[in-house]
Amino acid sequence: MKIYITNKSALVIVDVQNDFIPGGALPVPDGDKVIDPLNQYIQLFRQQGRPIFATRDWHPPNHISFKEYGGIWPPHCIQNSWGAEFHPNLKLPKDTIIISKATDPNKEAYSGFQGTELDDILKSKGIKRLFIGGLATDYCVKNTVLDALELGYETILLLDAIKGVDVNKGDSEKAIDEMIKKGAIGIKLDDIVE
Ligand code: VGL
Ligand code: ZN
After folding, report:
1. Which of 50, 76, 89, 123 could disulfide-link 45, Cβ–Cβ 3.0 to 4.6 Å?
2. Would you call the peptide bond into 136 cis, given omega within 30 degrees of 0 as the criterion?
3. CA quadruple 186, 190, 193, 194: dihedral positive or negative?
């Protein structure tokens, strides 16, 4: 599969935050493995002058997704905490557009589009094609990709730059199958034509 970074393309990096990396509060197994490939994608998008977005889970301390408030997760990615910071090895350019999500204490929001300006900003820039990677395959990556498809973006899933939580064995594989079935195009770094 050969794919171009067109002049209507953007890179969307989902939730590469300390809490989702081993050592954090809600570690994704092998979550750190997405960092090197994402840095390579960042490099390619910078070379082509294309915009880079980074979403972040940005919860208030009483968020509904936390066990204590009825959810299924340990507290994680609390606004302004170390765990909510982007991982220090991720080389985000200074002009990265940061999208904060799941900030409403009473609403779970796994998708980077839900309750954010992401779609508006992309549209204002004339973006039609999204390259999406990050964490976690079976939650925020999946929901962001499915929303992108529904919103009509050509949606490219970066298979070598995603890792899942797998609360149930096989969740990530199922999530990938669903994203592809619904129209996402799965690629790896080698597929990008420079
Ligand atoms: C996520 C679980 C809870 C994610 C966020 O970024 O995939 N997963 N909150
Ligand atoms: Zn969360």
Report:
1. 50
2. yes
3. positive
Quote the pLDDT of residue 1: 83
Determine if ligand 1 sits within 6 Å of the CB of residue 139.
Answer: yes
Domain assignment of residue 83, given as a range: 3-193
Q: Integer distance in angstroms from the first to the last C-alpha of the chain?
A: 14
Mutational test site, ligand 1, from 57, 101, 138, 171, max ligand atoms within 8 Å of CB: 57
Q: Is 175 in the pocket of ligand 1 (CB under 6 A)?
A: no
CATH number, domain of 163, equals 3.40.50.850
Pocket probe mutation, ligand 1, options 34, 76, 138, 141, max atoms within 8 Å of Cβ: 76
| pLDDT single digits (tens) 120-132 | 999 999 999 999 9
The helix, strand and coil proportions of the chain, stated in percent and rounded to the nearest 5, come to 30, 25, 45
pLDDT digits (tens, 9 = 90+) for 67-119: 999 999 999 999 999 999 999 999 999 999 999 999 999 999 999 999 999 99
Domain total for the chain? 1
Tell me how many degrees the CA angle 50-153-48 measures, rounded to the nearest 5: 15
- Output the six-digit token pair for 44: 């390619």
Tokens describing residue 56:
């972040």
